[in-house]
Amino acid sequence: DTGVSQDPRHKITKRGQNVTFRCDPISEHNRLYWYRQTLGQGPEFLTYFQNEAQLEKSRLLSDRFSAERPKGSFSTLEIQRTEQGDSAMYLCASSLAGGTFTAKNIQYFGAGTRLSVL
Amino acid sequence: QKEVEQNSGPLSVPEGAIASLNCTYSDRGSQSFFWYRQYSGKSPELIMFIYSNGDKEDGRFTAQLNKASQYVSLLIRDSQPSDSATYLCAADYNDKIIFGKGTRLHILP
């Protein structure tokens, strides 16, 4: 396995359009996280899944954002009616829950999808 | 509000010297802590993780954790120009990872 894969790497869209990003985690990992990162800030937690269940969603996330992980493998993050403030790097990370404590929730990141809303 | 605080820097360190990066966290409930390195335009890369009080060493890197003071640090020995990056401190709060804003490190040749 080559790690966490994200697609596309870059997305330019016009304000008001919908966009969808995909993340393929490391194959044996059961947890998948989505983050948003803007310039000069650390990654901001958006949501996470364990297998196909979405366990937590940030209160900062508006109703325009939705994420799915239908079969517990890849995940999609959709942003509806994009706004200029949505411009950011969207990062996906995966980890293995239920392993030994020493390996607990060590997250490995994909390369990210950079979104620009014009 | 669970927070992880870092000095944003930049921290400038001469090549070959020890770089010391610090981080504090707000919630004593956190069990695990992470240091990630992030080059400009790239995604975070795991450097170290630590969950027990004391020091953990891996090559040129040493992570230090003091749960009583809610303090985590990262030491980089024999700093190299390739260590110039942003270093992100993160804490695991009940499986949700909270990141600090990162410290920019410049290694001066």
Brief synopsis:
The complex is a heterodimer of chains A (118) and B (109). By secondary structure, chain A is mostly beta strands.
Largest protein-protein interface: A-B, 27 and 24 residues
Main sheet properties of chain A: 7 strands, mixed
Helix-residue proportion of chain A: under 10%
Return the string of H and E elements of chain B: EEEEEEEEEEE
Number of helices of chain B: 0
| Continuous helix count of chain A | 0
Explained architecture:
The complex is a heterodimer of chains A (118) and B (109). Chain A has strands at residues 5-7, 10-13, 19-24, 31-37, 44-50, 53-57, 65-68, 75-79, 88-95, 108-109, 113-117. By secondary structure, chain A is mainly beta. In chain A, strand 5 (44-50) and strand 6 form a beta hairpin. The radius of gyration of chain A is 14 Å and the shape is globular. The model of chain B has no long low-confidence stretch (mean pLDDT 94). Chain B has strands spanning 4-5, 11-14, 19-25, 32-38, 45-50, 54-58, 61-66, 71-76, 85-93, 96-99, 103-108. Chain B is built from no helices and 11 strands. In chain B, the strands form 2 sheets. In chain B, strands 2, 4, 5, 9, 10 and 11 form a 6-stranded mixed β-sheet that branches. In chain B, strands 1-3-8-7-6 form a 5-stranded antiparallel β-sheet, with no helix packed on it. The chains are: A mainly beta (118), B mainly beta (109).
